[in-house]
Amino acid sequence: MRRPRPQPPGVMNSPRRRDEHLLTQEREQRTREPQRICVGCKERDSRGALARLVIEEPRSDSGSPRIVADVMRRLPGRGVSIHPRRGCVEAAARKGGLSRGFRTQMKVEPAELIELLSAQYEARMRGLLLAARRSGALAVGTDAVREAMGRVEGALLIVAADAAGRREEIEQAATRLAKACIVFATKDELGRLLGRATVGVCLVLESGIAAELARTATLLTQLSEDG
Description:
Elements: H1 16-32, E1 35-37, E2 44-46, E3 51-56, E4 66-69, E5 79-82, H2 86-94, H3 97-102, H4 110-134, E6 138-140, H5 142-149, E7 156-159, H6 167-176, E8 180-183, H7 187-194, E9 201-204, H8 207-223
Parallel strand pairs: 7-8
Antiparallel strand pairs: 1-2, 3-4, 3-5, 6-9, 7-9
């Protein structure tokens, strides 16, 4: 069963003035970050807008090198950067961008790369949610979310893809308060992650974690879109 992809922040609520401000901040941030070139589209972009791929050497004489995703940019070795977009992944895999970037012949299917990147972005989001819970910066459940939503700036609302009940009420409240909102995982998946039977909604209260979750959700969503 295919996992539901998170919807990017602002899908449910995107006041024009807030969006323009966020876009301006993003452009300014990108100009300050180190620049890299995408091996798919050949365009230069900020490092944060690109994913990193590296070659993992074989662990035995009979093995062969393979490409692994390194979205946290922590693995050693020669790496290449790529936009986490279907079009860039397909171009890199089918038009020789990966081989030129790695300076060696590499054959990989676009779907395999997309799955590798998606798995790491999903793991990153789970890790950020756990970090929010451990630091006491996560409101879980409808009542807790409603109570915290109006008093915390920079919070991020997360709604399970199969949430029902009072989901619409919570989403409407988020819209009124101009809170960013993403859809991620299922109620059962969020419940297992957060130590509950099921979780339909939660609110990340720490602005730094919320911003990184929103950014990662946007990158993950791009992988499932055409173009």
